[in-house]
Amino acid sequence: MIRIYTALGGLSLIWGLSFVFIKMLVGPAGMWGTVFLRCAAGAVLLLPILLAKRNTIPRSIPWVPLLIVGVLNTGVPWGLIALSETVISSSSASILNATAPLWTGLIGLLFFSAVLAIRQWIGLFMGLIGILIFIDFDVLKLAQENFTGVGTMLIATLCYGTSAQLTRKYLGNSGVLFTTSVSLLVGALVGLVGLLFSQPMELSGLANGQVILAVIGLGCFGSGIAQLLFYYITKEGGPEVAVSVTFLIPVTALLWGAFLLHETISSHAIWGLLVILAGVYLSTRKKKPAIAVSESA
């Protein structure tokens, strides 16, 4: 579990910063341009590695589940997140993103015959309570945000929950590197198709140091490396463990703000962090196997 927790922490740090990069990129690139650029940049990073390790490509490829997961885990949700950040703040988007574990648990329960232990449900709800403490119970702030922005974020988290369950059921033997690379290629294709039916990217606006940094940050780290970590956690720890990273993302977003922008961390944010971490531990801790007792004992 130490490796899984380490990957979970690294993933939360990367994706916490990604919401800032999305805000920087969505202006000049647009909704679908953001999807295309981040997926293409991530694929450019991973494809050479995949070609160098051809032996990781499975002989029997489940193309239909692989394509569906690519659409639901990258193309559609990343487009919806970019759209939401045109009308709501990045911090609000990261908080709404924390509903993904609940969707994952409910979808698994309803459609994938998944059974969650009581401690896992307690952990999931503790995570949500921690988010409320984190924002000082100011739910009216979220309610006052643009409904389109809030709705698109919730649909994006629903996509995450569905793709996580599909990954565990159908892609367990596909290999993390191969699954991630194909997912990013599918996402780039979705973004490209979206561009054909929407406003094109402002190429002049892309020639900016800040925007280029956002593309590198979103593509190479937020898409390439982060997707590797996400699929690794999904396969090794399960989908509920993987999407629990969304509880940590608002926290890491706050930490990035304190580190890069010298923002103040409030006391309620610290208490919220402690509750969130406790919830993540409960929802991801694996049950210890029962120890058999011999008859002689």
| Count of runs of 4 or more consecutive helical residues | 13
Give the SSE order as H and E letters: HHHHHHHHHHHHH
Distance between the termini: 31 Å
Radius of gyration: 19 Å
Q: What is the molecular shape?
A: globular
Range of strand content = under 5%
**Topology, number of strands:** 0
Number of domains: 1
Which structural class do the helices and strands define?
A: mainly alpha
* Average pLDDT level: 83
Largest sheet: none
Low-pLDDT residue intervals, each spanning 5 or more residues:
290-297
Percent helix range: over 70%
Write the layout of secondary structure elements.
Elements: H1 2-52, H2 63-84, H3 90-96, H4 100-111, H5 118-134, H6 139-143, H7 147-170, H8 176-196, H9 203-206, H10 209-237, H11 239-243, H12 245-261, H13 267-284
Characterization of this structure:
Helices cover 78% and strands 0% of the residues. With 297 residues, the protein is mostly helical. It has one domain (2-284). Residues 290-297 have low confidence and may be disordered.
Which descriptors apply to this entry?
13 helices; disordered C terminus; 297 residues; single chain; globular
Summarize the structure.
The protein has 297 residues and is mainly α. The chain has helices at 2-52, 63-84, 90-96, 100-111, 118-134, 139-143, 147-170, 176-196, 203-206, 209-237, 239-243, 245-261, 267-284. The chain is built from 13 helices and no strands.
